[in-house]
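Q: Protein A?
A:
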Amino acid sequence: MAANDFYIRGMTEGDLPAVMILEEDLFTDPWPESVFLEDIASSFSHPQVAELDGQLVGYAILWVGVEEGHLTNIAVSQKFQRKSIAKRLLSFILGLATDLKLRQVFLEVRPSNEAAIKLYENFDFDQLDVRKNYYRNPPEDCVVMRHMIASGNSGREGE
C-alpha cells in the first residue's frame, strides 16, 4: 500500500452508503445511519474515514468532552484488514486527541475481540474495568480501556 494512495479525512454525508455497508458487514449490532448523521453534524464528534485508491476502507469516530475523548467506533473493511489501516486510523485519532489537548481517550471493546485489544495495548491503552452484559447481540461483557495522552506528542499521520 503506497502512502500516497491512502489518506484519512473527515466523514461526510456522501460517505454514509459505504459506511453503512461496513457497519452492517462488521458488526452484529450495527448503528443506524441516523447516528452517523448526528456525528457528522455534531461539534463534539470527529468522524473520520480512511480511503485507499478512492475507496472508503474504514472509519473511526472520536467524541470529545472536557479534557477527554471517547473512541466510539473504529472499523476496517474485512478485505483491507491486516494492512495497518486500523493502526493508522488509531494513530490519527490519538494525534487529533493530542491536538485538541485531551488528557485521555476511552473506549469499549468486546473481550472476544482479541485483535482489537492487542492493537489498543500496542498504543498503550490500559484495561480499566469490565462492564457486565454491555453488548446485546450476542450478549457479552465489555472491556473499558484508557489511553493517557502525553502532552506535546502529535501522532497524526496519513493525512
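Q: Protein B?
A:
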Amino acid sequence: MSHKKDITIYDIARELRISAATVSRSLKNSPVISVKTRQMVQELAHKKGYRPNTVAHNLRKQKTNTIGMIVPRLDSYFISTVLAGIETVLNPAGYHLIISQSFENSEKEIVNAMTMFNNRVDALIVSLAADTTEISHFEPFMEKGVPVFFFDRVCKQDICQKFVLDNYQAGYEMTKHLIEQQSRKIVHITGNLTKNVYNDRMNGYRQAIEDHGISFNPAYLITNNLSLKAGIEAAEQIILMKPLPDAIFAANDLCASACMAALKEKGVKIPDDIIIGGFNNDPVSRLVEPRLTTVNYPGDTMGKIIASKLIDKLQGKLPADFPVTQIIKSELVVRASTLRKKSA
C-alpha cells in the first residue's frame, strides 16, 4: 500500500501561484499578508492535510521543546504523581515530555539515555535504576550543556540539580512514632541500600532507636525489592523470630500492606501484637484494614517544583545560588495500624 507524500509549502505555493515565502507567512498569520490571502492559504493547507516540519524548524533553532524523562517504573504511584505534577507545568509552557522506563536495569537506562540524547531533548529528568552505580551515560548531556535534573533516587555527585525528600528525617520520625507506641523490637524492611532513599531511611531508623536507648539488631533489618511478594516473604521471616517483634517499619506502602495481610493470615493481630508503618502514602495505605500509618511523599508537588525550576534553567532564569539539592517536605500520617491500645 503506497502512502501519500507529505504536502509542503512549495506544493501550496505552486497550486495558488504565489511564492513559498507568502505561504509561509500566511500560515504564521503574518499581518504583512492580506487577510484574503492568509485565509486562502490556510484553507488549502487544511484541505491538503499540510503539517509543519517541526523537526527541521527545531533543528534550525537548536531546540526541540521536548524534555526527556527516565524513571525506574511507571506503575509506581509515586512516579505517576511526580509525572502528573511535571506535565501540569511543562505542557502550558509549550514543552512536551518523552518518557521511558529503565525497569530497574542500568543497561536499559543507558540505552534510554542515548535515545534521549539522539532525539536532542532540551533537558533530561531522571530517577535512577536500582542497580545504577555510576552516571557516565549522562555526561554527553552535560558536555552539550543540556540540563540533567535528578529526583528521588539521585547521584552522589553534586554535578546536577537534585530534588529529594529528607528521607533520613522521615525515617527517624516514623521510627520515633513506633517507639512512642511502646515498641522496642522494631523490624525495618528496606530496599537496595546503595540507593540514597533507602539508605537514608535506614539511617534515620537506626538513629531513632539508638537515641531511645535501643541497640541495633542486624536480624531486624530485612533487605528486599519491596514488592508485594517481598512483603509476604518478609512476614514469613518475621513470624519465625523469637521473640516476635512488636513493630515493623517498611520503606514503602505496598510491601508494608502485603506484610500486614500475610501476618494477619497467620493470626497476628494488628495493631495489638505488631504495629506497622509504611512510606509514600500510596492509595493502598487507605484501603487495607487497619489503615496504614505512612509518610506522605508529595510527588505532585515535587513534580511541579522540578518542572518550574527546569523551565527557569532553560530560560537562563535559575538563580546562581539555587541549591544543588532541593529538599521537599514530607509529613507523618498516623492511622490505625500503629495506634496500639494503651493498657489501663
